[in-house]
Amino acid sequence: SSSSYYEENINLKTLRELCFNGIPFEGGIRALCWKILLNYLPLDQSLWESFLKKQREVYSQFLKEMIIQPGIAKANLGLSREDVTMEDHPLNPNPDSRWNTYFKDNEILLQIDKDVRRLYPDMAFFQRPTEYPCQLILDPQNDYETLRRRVEQTTLKAQTVNRNRSGVTNVSSPGKALNLYPSNEYEVLPNGSEAHWEVVERILFIYAKLNPGIAYVQGMNEIVGPIYYTFATDPNSQWKEHAEADTFFCFTNLMSENRDNFIKSLDDSQCGITYKMESVYSMLKDKDLELYLKLEEQNIKPQYFTFRWLTLLLSQEFLLPDVIRIWDTLFSDEDRFHFLILVCCAMLILIRDNILAGDFTMNMRLLQDYPISDVHTILTKAKELQDNL
After folding, report:
1. Is 92 left (phi over 0), alpha (psi -120 to 50) or beta?
2. 263-388 is a CATH 1.10.472.80 domain
3. Which residues pair with 129 in a beta bridge?
4. Using 50, 70 and 90 to split pLDDT, how confident is the model at 81?
């Protein structure tokens, strides 16, 4: 029974050890464990009910303030004149103008929209309707603008922001970029329902609004995706119903540890992504000098492939169930980003023979479309490297 897993007060150390080797799929234990490992749920189980109630109320407040109210203001524009005073009309250049914010938000929204529609195109899940559509938003009484309508009506030319900072054009590997849903034609669901990708879009939009310093950077969708999928497929319907709010908070917690990778101005600082990319090579140098020298000699720089591996926590390199399995281990490691570097190292060492035999072009292709799909082998190797530190 699951009660052997946790008493009233959860022992985090034990939980981490259990989850490190992979969380069983049965019984919806994974979603629960992730909520604890990502510092969302308190360790004292008796607090869960009141804590969750509070967090979910906070989230629905965000929905009201950031999605419903701007939508109502927009809907009222045609109906009542009182909104359109001299101080605040759509052409007002004043930076405090609500309209100014509205148009700025639209740029972010269009970028998010483009990315979330492409989430895991080889899986139908994100295109399917959720069993628990957001009632606040889909209320048939409402004639305000939802995010979806907002995207459809935004005629502003969205600037396609190319945010890949390491100067490498290949951001998604060929095998995984099957764009089965061109962004202009996606399934239209019946009234009153919404697809899972629309929920992810809301989560990211609210995150961007609450974190203006980082807003939205391409790739964040790949980090929300697996968390949301895990929560939204939870066999326990009470948890499943609140997948959106719970995902939002878990994503926010994970991003608070990972956000430096997304902030360009920190690239070269100790906490930035450059430092992490270089630590993959310095660790490799320790573990397998010959392989390290080969990559150096071919001038294959870590940013050519580890940028994506590290920033997106490997979510683009493997199929979703395998990504989820890797994340069990990552989330349960106290120093998850250090373990991620070990995993990257293990991935290199496992294909050392190919790399040693290959030329620059062959090796770049290997690294950008990683050939080993068995994540168990990779995690075992990473653990072995960790034990031999």
Report:
1. beta
2. yes
3. 195
4. very low
